[in-house]
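quick one, two chains, predict together pls
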Amino acid sequence: MKRLRKWMRLQPRRIGEPAMPELDVNIQVSSDLNQNEQALHTIFEHCSDIVFRKVRHASGAVETMEWLVIFLSSLVNEEVIDDHILKSMISLQAEKKLPLEEFAETFLSAGTIEVTTNMKDIVRQLLNGYAIVLAQAEPAAMMVKANGTKQRSLEEPSSEPVIRGPRDGFVENVMTNMGLLRNRMKTPRLKMESVTLGELTQTQVVIAYIAGVADASLIDEIKKRVNRIQIDGILDSGYVEEFIEDLPYSPFPQIHSTERPDVVAAELLEGRVSILVDNTPFVLIAPMTLWAGLQASEDYYVRWPIATFVRWIRFLFIFIAIFAPPLYVAITTFHQEMIPTNLVLSIASAREAVPFPALIEALLMEIIFEALREAGIRLPKQIGQAVSIVGALVIGQAAVQAGIISAPVVIIVSITGIAAFTIPRYSFANGIRLLRFPMLFLAGTLGLYGIVLGFIAILLHVSSLRSFGVPYFTPVSLSSLKDIVIRSPIWARTLRPPSE
Amino acid sequence: MKHLMKQLLCLGLLANLLLLSGCWDRTEINDLAFITGSAFDLSKSGKYILSIQIAIPQGGTGSGDTGQQEKFFVLSAEGSNASEAFELIQKKSSRRLFTAHRSVIFIGESLGRRGINDVLDVFAHDPRQRLRTYIMVVKGGEGKRILETRYPFEQVSVESIKELEGLDTEVAVTLRDYYISASSQGISPVMGVIEPEVNPQGGEKRNELYRQAGTAIFKDAKLVGILNGNETSGFLWAADRMKQGRINAVLPNGQGIVGIVLNATKRRMVTEVQGDKVKVKLKLQGKGSIVENNTHLDVSRPKNRALVEQVLEKSIEEQVRHLISQLQKKYRADSLGIGQELYREHPKLWKQLQNSWEDKFPEAEVSVAVQLSILGSGMAGPPLQFNDKEIIK
């Protein structure tokens, strides 16, 4: 009981305080090999994946040379260690005893080698998948990059599929992701600054931008906010997003996240800054504007008249996604005179047997729809079909036939559902879906007046919202409507984005 | 934290405000009785009978056997004015009567002849009424009978009358039109007319239909007469209300009948006062194309077309002249708005005339000039069934 209570009671933590007492590893490498080994043994106690490999070289005339190779077998590619470290040690043909640094320079055929005298660096790089080479009677260590964890191959991002356009997506490894960006932009002006966040996870976070295109003050602001983050662990870029966004209480995302390298590249070219986080394929882009939520990467890959048409469809459906159910509820319960006679009679026929008020009916269906959507995401793929059958048949047909829900509401809710899916940015669509419920309440209590109030409130909120100092409604000015109302031809867009 | 709590509390209180005060006029659609049409008739005791037709929503979608179900029903009540009768009907209806979807109001002929001022006012004062509602006179019958008639096309029978009026083939007058012309100077209001039509073969009510039957001429809110179909088509043109029309004319020398469809008509009225006499020139212009040619003429020839034009113009002129003499002599009602035109063109003279206009109007000298241009001769010049020799070129 006591233990349970202790387990449940979380220790409050003040910002700025370290997560837990740090291990005392800030010691110098000793010249005694055994002492070093002992120290590392203590630090990595109970870590079954640590390997200590002693190599002794005694070839004829020379003094015996003794090395200790240490690595975490879960992180390294053992082939690298075998071929590039151990082999060169064992088959060494040396006239005299070599100092460690000279040995490494001459005989180790690995790519990245660092030297240190501090145990702290050793521990850090061990955890990054380096192999550590220590030599007898030398107070220094060589750190050889040998990491080789398994990673997923590049796949088409499942959350942002395109018909035309590049099909590679980010993966969980930040190095690969950086490579995907470098591949697209072969310029040294593409800067990628790395910081390590998360006291326990030590996650690598990379801030990427194009020097000279991105606004310097924006870069500074982002770095400042990122460096302020204090947390034990970062498991996804969502952690970083919540820490650095401007207004945490807004339903609208203020930082854009994507799995597509081409989107990141395009945004970088427009002067934005992106944040790559290790171990997640989702890359953040800041600042974000409302229009970014309505633009799909494919808009730029198909010919412009088609892209423009598709955009208009999206503009239309974003309104449907917010306002269709509220409008239905408001008009059928407050403004029956607005509906054409034949339509009002057919709606009345459909509602004849329905016991609920229109507001409750619409809310019920919306909530069921949201549940179906959520279930569709969480379910194992094998039973996904069962849910869609149950959802479509039970909700769509049986509920209407049983007279519990009227057919017009089913139609409205399904149109709304489809409308929300036309929004290309998932996080933006989420915000829109959330807004539907307060709007529904306003419509059900105040009618069209309530819808107008709600619309004004949304408009006020969006126009006062800022993402890293950039107004959310940004480029609504006549000159920049070229990429909003229409998607003008690529050749007609001759101006660089302003980088103040 | 405290700040946030305060904000949440405020939000909660605001939400209560919505729930406590918001829904006062919320009505579910299935708690409403949709009135599709009303009728005013005169009762034997001299009071008004208000009848309303209420649509019955067809419950239970999906199940097939709804064919036998009634689509509407009619409720009536007698009252000394419109709202009293309306309240009496509300007491019979379990759902709240909803007037915004009413499309037509019928006035029984006998009520019309007695005067309709008492029943009309409620439509102007009550905000639940719609001024776009059509208003019609039921020729030789009661409005209630029209309401009870089943019409095969529409779900609710009165909708069919709305559609008929929308076709613009006859005079279609809404409450708004009626109020405007009744309150204007120098014009008498008119209304559309509907007539029950009994199928002589079937004695059953099911075979009873109705048709548009001319124009009702009102004067001082009283029905003074009803124009027949021929007079009505003249009236439409002379009053510049014609949207489209068909004109037939018999060619001289017994050659046959030619029919045209008008697709653009224009009327111009010029008034003139000479001493004591009012002179009015009506200029009627029309464009149309031939749709029927029962003569032996090849109407694609300009010569023949001119002949046809001449004959048609003559027939229209006669039609309009007849109409004007009816208005002037028989009904003494200025339904064409000659007085209004006079007022517009000679406002000072009108001031002297307006009090005696009732006597001056029948004396006014009206000349009619028709200018018709036939733009197309249809798909064929001469009738196709004749051989070459029979055709007059």
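Chain A has a mean pLDDT of 85.
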